[in-house]
DNA sequence: CCGTATCCATGAAGATACTG
DNA sequence: CAGTATCTTCATGGATACGG
């Protein structure tokens, strides 16, 4: 016992941890958002700039979903001009190892952009 | 130097490692497929059973995409009835830490299924 | 057993314009 | 600055039926 074969009886009908996890962070920009927030709190437009090409509508939506998942918090300051800050919750910070693992893997194994002009 | 602020100048216009990595493994069943293959080679229908509710068409497609990304290999045996085996490549196996991290996180933080009947 | 071939519904996300 | 409000496009993935 102890180790056992943890891959044997992994019936995923009805939801399983990996699927569950992916569900919460799947979305075109979510991984990236989390990665950037690992560096600390960011305002809406700071985040926007870092992501490069995301639209306001989309960024807002992804942030709201991450908020609902309990991965980040949204803090609104009653000032003018408006100021809204996003930070990771503890739950979100616990993704640090995973996201940095993805980052490292992404460097080690870039997308194979078709084996053209090769041969 | 050395550490520096690696979050500061992380301009993702034009593709960045995290985005790149996510691109290769995003798909409704891909994370799960990789997870199951961490336990070793599997045949098409074994995989199918483990995923629970995936259709043939969809599973085939996700497998082909993972193959094209170089994450797994597809070995066809010229026997009848047909036999096709899927296994992770080295590139795929390097995702082990990430996927197991997701698995652990998914257990620790299930999806917050609305705070109903709670209060 | 391991797929293809069709057809189709859904929703994710971009473009664009406007507002407190 | 930080969003809404619309409208539209497109890819994902399910359902179903058939084939080597």
Automatic annotation (TrEMBL), chains A, B:
GO terms for molecular function: DNA binding. It holds the Pfam family HxlR. InterPro entries: ArsR-like_HTH, HTH_HxlR, WH-like_DNA-bd_sf, WH_DNA-bd_sf. Residues 16-114 form the HTH hxlR-type domain. Transmembrane segments: none annotated. GO terms for biological process: regulation of DNA-templated transcription. It comes from the Bacteria. Keywords: DNA-binding, Transcription, Transcription regulation. PANTHER family: TRANSCRIPTIONAL REGULATOR, TRANSCRIPTIONAL REGULATOR, MARR FAMILY. This is HxlR family transcriptional regulator.
